[in-house]
Design a protein that fits this description.
alpha/beta
């Protein structure tokens, strides 16, 4: 993944002047040594400056971690901690911040070397609120060196997403297709998050595409496509045009990145795209997504942002799919009910034309877009990458601005079942516990559009914390039967 941040976490231990500074120093050293032993990674930096109740010491620590290239911060309470200096450090640091604290090691420390960091976390949290400072505090933030090392390691993908969002530019090519208001949302929330957006017309893209005609790099890209597709290369005659389009997008990214470090694309693929370009862009979209550059369909800006967040968290490719159709009852009865603990309403099929990365698809094959070919010559609809999505764990999620400019999100963990879809496109049979109720009381009730981002693995915990850190007003999830939604009829059987 070349389009996501590399995280380096500065670990700053803090100490209150009425406690032995050595207590925090020794605990900090133990924490860093344990982290490096557990994860064999050099993505943490041990700041040698131990803050006592002093703003000057705080400034020294801030300068040190910035000088060492840290883009995320862990403030570690080795003892009670200086509530003013430590929260000022969080306030002044330009990046995501987490707090955790040391537990007492054994009964031998309780007389002269008790740290009281359990108490200090309370004052830290209060002072963070006084200063309106965002910081990540884990569900239970106090523990020994191994426990706190795990907390920091869990913070890495969260920090990667938060740093990525702040340094992201979304490039869109629009406008949205007719009758496609579902993915239309105010861009104000993008700016609130620190995301830049560059909106372009299809004509700009079309002009740039033509300028790439006979680009000397096209044959090498075609060769790479042939190797990727293998026996699935059913439309070899279209590869040169697809390669030309891929180079167009990659060059556009480099020329238009501006002051931002990372880019995602909200593209358009119909209704005029096929007839003018002579193909559909699905396969190219899938390839860029596999590089860590998510490309959403149908100019779905918040879908594109959602994909990018998942890419940062998972460190791998994601996809964007329609929450599309019900599983036929006979398929459920024959292939799901006898084998899996899912109700019929827990299952659904998620689909898109062909934008999913090839490594996420069984037997990926280059085909034509069947729906578009109903009203267009089939030869201008070539370019989809089709096949059943590989079975395994998934997280279905989305970050969305509402029409009245509120920031909502949802997430649910589930799986793609090893059930043949007997259909077309990039498609899979999905199962999420209590999907029926989640569909009605989160997706429908809150007005979410039909596109959902899919990360391959269970990342609900990190996603939830990222959404909280971003200030998302409501985060929906698939609640168990014992927990009713606000709009759920209590008299429903």
């Amino acid at each position: 993944m070349k389009n996501i941040p590399e995280i380096k976490i500065g670990i700053v231990a803090v100490s209150r002047d009425c406690f032995p500074e050595s207590l925090s120093v020794d605990r900090r050293k133990a924490l860093v040594q344990t982290y490096q032993k557990m994860y064999n990674q050099q993505d943490v930096y041990e700041c040698p400056i131990c803050i006592v109740e002093s703003e000057l010491h705080m400034e020294d620590a801030l300068a040190d971690i910035k000088n060492k290239g840290c883009n995320a911060l862990c403030i570690y309470l080795g003892n009670f901690g200086p509530e003013i200096a430590e929260t000022m450090l969080a306030q002044k640091f330009d990046g995501p911040v987490m707090f955790c604290a040391a537990a007492e090691e054994n009964t031998g420390v309780l007389s002269d070397h008790r740290g009281d960091a359990y108490c200090g976390m309370l004052n830290a949290s209060y002072n963070l609120k006084l200063r309106n400072v965002k910081a990540y505090i884990p569900e239970y933030p106090v523990g020994d060196a191994a426990y706190c090392a795990r907390l920091i390691h869990e913070f890495v993908p969260m920090a990667r997403a938060l740093v990525g969002i702040k340094n992201l530019k979304i490039i869109s090519f629009g406008p949205r297709p007719l009758n496609f208001m579902a993915c239309n949302a105010p861009i104000k929330q993008l700016f609130n998050l620190g995301v830049e957006i560059e909106e372009n017309s299809e004509l700009d893209l079309f002009e740039s595409f033509h300028k790439h005609k006979d680009d000397i790099r096209i044959p090498s890209v075609v060769q790479d496509m042939e190797q990727e597709l293998g026996t699935g290369n059913q439309k070899p005659e279209i590869l040169a045009k697809l390669a030309q389009y891929e180079l167009t997008l990659l060059d556009w990214i480099e020329a238009h990145k501006g002051s931002k470090k990372y880019v995602a694309i909200a593209g358009k693929c119909w209704p005029a795209f096929q007839t003018q370009f002579g193909f559909v862009p699905c396969y190219v979209n899938s390839r860029l997504t596999g590089m860590g550059i998510p490309v959403s369909c149908e100019v779905d800006i918040y879908g594109c942002l959602s994909e990018y967040i998942g890419t940062c968290i998972s460190g791998d490719s994601v996809t964007l799919l329609d929450i599309n159709n019900t599983v036929p009852l006979d398929m459920y009865q024959q292939s799901i009910e006898p084998k899996y603990d899912y109700q019929f309403t827990d299952t659904f099929m998620a689909f898109h034309c062909g934008n999913t990365c090839s490594k996420r698809i069984c037997n990926p094959t280059m085909k034509y877009q069947k729906i578009m070919a109903r009203s267009l010559p089939v030869e201008v609809t070539h370019g989809t990458l089709e096949g059943d999505i590989l079975p395994g764990a998934i997280t279905f999620y989305r970050l969305q601005s509402t029409a009245d400019n509120h920031l909502y999100a949802y997430l649910a963990e589930g799986e793609v079942l090893p059930v043949a879809t007997q259909s077309f496109g990039s498609i899979g049979v999905f199962a999420i516990k209590e999907m029926g109720r989640f569909y009605r009381h989160v997706l429908l009730e809150k007005g979410f559009p039909h596109h959902g981002a899919v990360a391959f693995g269970h990342f609900g915990k990190v996603l939830f914390e990222v959404f909280k850190y971003l200030g998302v007003e409501e985060i929906g999830y698939n609640q168990p039967k014992t927990m009713r939604y606000k709009t759920e009829n209590p008299f429903e059987i």
